[in-house]
Amino acid sequence: MDSCRLLVVSNRLPTSITRNGEQSWSTKISGGGLVSALLGVKNEETKWIGWAGLEVKDEIGQKSLTNVLAEKRCIPVFLDNDTTDKYYNGYCNCIIWPILHYLGIPQDDCFAKNGTYKAQYDAYKKANKAFADVIMEHYREGDIIWIHDYHLMLLPKYLKDRNSNMKIGFFLHTTFPPSEIWRTLPEGPELLRSLLASDMIGLHTYDLVRHFVSTCSNILGLESTPKGIVDQGKLTRISAFPIGIDADNFINTVQTSEVKMEMKRLKEKFGGRKIILGVERLDTIKGIPHKILAFERFLEENPEWRDKVVLVEIGVPSRSDVPEYQKLKIQIHELVSRVNGRFGTFHQVPIHHLDQSVNFPTLCALYAVSDVALITSLRDGMNLVSYEYVASQTTNKGVLILSEVAGAAQCLGAGAILVNPWNTPDIAASISRALTMPAKEREKRHQHNLAYVKSYTAQEWANDNLRCIHETIAEAQIPKQL
Ligand code: GDG
């Protein structure tokens, strides 16, 4: 791969920022798949451009934060609170996110709370333009721009309009729906045209590539080839790159004394009961109510397990200003309370539920002590939690129950028990099967998944994406040389 400067662009920077005083800031690296994937990219120089995550109105503050972040190779985009609310809470998370995950556009209080539809889309454009401005300020000829996710779908076009020589890759971390769902989005054609201004678009799986390509053909009437979409002689390459994790980080962290002590505490806390684990952002796509209903069914049908198993459900707060997410939280609380009320005793309850995130060592300890991971996403681009669980199960060889409609099912399907998240009785039966699975079968399934998780890592994913961007750019230059 050529040595070049890489500008990674995503809605958020990989650091969380707190203001302590006029010119005093603390920054902390945030976790997550994208951060670990990109930290491993071996490039001459990588810079990360993203929203600062907080409003900084004064110029002195903006300058001082920019200087602090420069040391971390990060460049902030500043957005005011009103734009952020309409762009992020509104258009990104009320409109595009549900469409991308095959759900309809909500019609009610989403607009009342986060501004009208038009105001939300205007804010989306404004935010994408603010990103384009910052990129243009820092861009040098030859840089590769690698844009991430649905927050920035208008950015490829805004950039190419200003400099048609720019080399742009785009990666979508979510699912992408069939064309008839995308068709319901009023701005769908405009967003597609902008995405196609990229040189290369990556999605997690071939199914998603197929959806994207057929949507471009059906809605825009464009020609598709095995490599991608052709518009007026220009090819935009569309390819599948299933994201991975930094498996060694989990394998090594579960060996640390801090995690081992936490594992011991957790085992004592749950008093020898089998642990079923759920970890996810509290999100409408993660199927948390479906999981609780299935666990309830399992307890109904298997009374002998009632005092021998606990479901630990970590629902990490997410998008808490969006009405759909507020409703979901209430629904989950009601369900947890019902199941605990029905099957709990004075001594213990069957669901241990937290509305909080946990720190990384605790997360690793939870992964490592759990006997089963239960993932019932209704749609999920990939689902990194399933990978992280596998990587952390070095001693337990726990069982992964995984939604068949998560992208991860296409990579871990042979080792996991796959379930349809809407099939409550089948998930309940799968819990029973997982808890009673013979050690030999658990070992075999675990080894299968571990081999995959270790071989296709976050770094491989990033390198493959970048290799493909370089190839596409090189191929596009061939006719000019003839
Ligand atoms: C999007 C797509 C796609 C979770 N709770 C805690 C915590 N986490 C970390 C996990 C994991 C990440 O958050 C979640 O990643 P997922 O992939 O499971 O889900 P999304 O957030 O929806 O991610 C998804 C992904 O992008 C990557 O392309 O797979 O389909 O929706 O890394 O470890 N980390 C800590 N405490 C927690 O409580 N420290």
TrEMBL record:
Coiled coil (UniProt feature): none
GO biological process per UniProt: trehalose biosynthetic process
Top-level lineage group: Eukaryota
A molecular function GO annotation: trehalose-phosphatase activity
EC number(s) reported in the record: 2.4.1.15
Keyword list, A-Z: Glycosyltransferase, Transferase
GO CC annotation terms, alphabetical: cytosol
Family to which the UniProt record says this protein belongs: In the C-terminal section; belongs to the trehalose phosphatase family.
Protein name: alpha,alpha-trehalose-phosphate synthase (UDP-forming)
Classification of source organism: Eukaryota, Viridiplantae, Streptophyta, Embryophyta, Tracheophyta
Portion of the full-length sequence here: 1 to 482 of 726
